[in-house]
Write a structure and sequence with these properties.
The structure is a single chain. The chain is an alpha+beta fold. Strands 1-2-3-9-6-4 form a six-stranded mixed sheet. A three-stranded antiparallel sheet has the order 5-11-10. It is 48% helix and 9% strand. Strand 7 and strand 8 form a beta hairpin.
Length: 403
């Protein structure tokens, strides 16, 4: 067992939840991995720095497969690894991950994602119509646009009825930012029960939607998703398919508010700068603070430290993309920067399959918002905004704006 001291993230930075970057930078200056206590009181290990994070994301000794680790680490305790909600590819290593990803990847080809652009634009326009219609000249941007846009898109893709989407939001919120262990378990059980019925219906009566396609996809060798695997994939797509984009839009707009010179640059040349601006939003304050947990299957040397076997390890994507060894003046938000090389969507085997869809939604949402709301500004104290708890997702619950 390493003798590394346990560092309390909250003590290192009282404002850690709102602004973790100075704490990560201080840790990075001391080494690439640290034994820490999170603001929620959990002890784990965290990897910082661009090079170390990229290496950790592809290290086979850091498993994503719950079946290979102590049951105490499972989300619902000893029976956790058996939940259909946890059979998806993000919780599998190769070759299981390779098999599952192959069965899904064809539905996320660049051509198919690009074909969604007109529908994403129509949904965005309708949401902005509603936001601007009441004459109040103010709204919560998360509730009005950042949340309903990606949730509508992914639910339409999967064939989830509109009446069920509020329930999915509640389950998803608890699953990515747990507030209580019992509520977390209930969220997983509820989403599994719901999807068991929905996927069975799609197998029996397929429609023109992604879930029906996945239920009937068979590869060249005759392989297909099992019933539990289809449920797990639906859980993954529903959660990952909207949570990332919600925070991409929210964090990106906040960054523009905090840097009015960059906002004016983007307003002056949206066609030329919007793609780069979205990449800089992802790098500067991305939607995922740390990658989903990994677990050591044996002692692992990272830098001069031995991380013991059987412990949780988080990879700090947020810090990797603020590392001056990779990006010059990393704490400066600069939409003209070449932000390529950021790892906001991960790296290696588990690189986000839905990244092209998130980018598409982000570009369309931010572009339409700035075009239709020329006087858009923050309508709250930045320091008082309510943040999503936990180290997984990085974003605010609400974002009051006026125009």
């Amino acid at each position: 067992m390493s003798s590394a001291p346990v560092l309390d993230l909250k003590e290192l930075g009282p404002d850690f939840v709102r602004d973790p970057y100075p704490v990560y930078a201080a840790l990075r200056a001391e080494g690439p991995v640290h034994h820490v206590r999170t603001p929620e009181g959990e002890e784990l290990w965290i990897v910082v720095g661009h090079e170390a994070c990229r290496a950790a994301l592809v290290d086979p000794r850091l498993t994503r497969d719950l079946r290979k680790v102590d049951p105490a680490l499972h989300p619902f305790g000893k029976d956790g690894a058996d939940s259909p909600a946890l059979t998806h590819m993000l919780l599998r290593d190769a070759p299981d991950h390779t098999r599952l990803r192959k069965l899904v990847a064809r539905e996320f080809s660049p051509r198919r994602i690009a074909a969604l652009a007109p529908r994403v634009q129509r949904i965005t326009d309708a949401l902005l119509d509603a936001m601007l219609a009441d004459g109040a000249r103010g709204a919560d941007l998360i509730a009005a646009l950042a949340y309903p846009l990606p949730m509508t898109v992914i639910c339409e893709l999967l064939g989830v009825p509109e009446a069920d989407r509020d329930a999915f939001r509640a389950w998803s919120n608890e699953m990515v930012a747990p507030t209580d262990q019992e509520l977390l378990g209930a969220a997983y059980r509820n989403v599994v029960d719901y999807l068991r019925g929905l996927t069975a219906a799609k197998r029996e009566h397929p429609g023109d939607d992604l879930l029906s396609a996945l239920a009937h996809t068979v590869d060249e060798g005759g392989d297909r998703l099992s019933g539990d695997e289809l449920i797990g994939m639906a859980v993954l797509l529903l959660i990952a398919g909207h949570e990332t984009t919600v925070n991409l839009i929210g964090n990106g707009v906040r960054a523009l508010f905090a840097h009015p010179d960059q906002l004016e640059l983007l307003r002056a040349d949206p066609d030329g700068l919007l793609d780069g601006a979205v990449e800089e939003m992802l790098r500067y304050d991305g939607p995922v603070e740390t990658a989903l947990p990994r677990w050591t299957t044996e002692p692992v040397h990272i830098g001069d430290t031995v991380v013991p076997a059987g412990v949780s390890v988080l990879v700090a994507l947020a810090d990797a993309d603020r590392d001056p060894a990779r990006f010059a003046a990393p704490d400066r938000f600069n939409i003209r920067r070449d932000a390529r090389g950021h790892i906001a969507f991960g790296h290696g085997l588990h690189y986000c399959l839905g990244a092209p869809l998130a980018r598409l939604e982000g570009r369309i949402a931010v572009g339409a918002l700035l075009e239709r709301c020329p006087g858009l500004t923050l309508d709250a104290d930045e320091a008082a905004l309510p943040w999503v708890p936990g180290l997984l997702m990085r974003g605010v619950r609400t974002l009051p704006v006026r125009w």
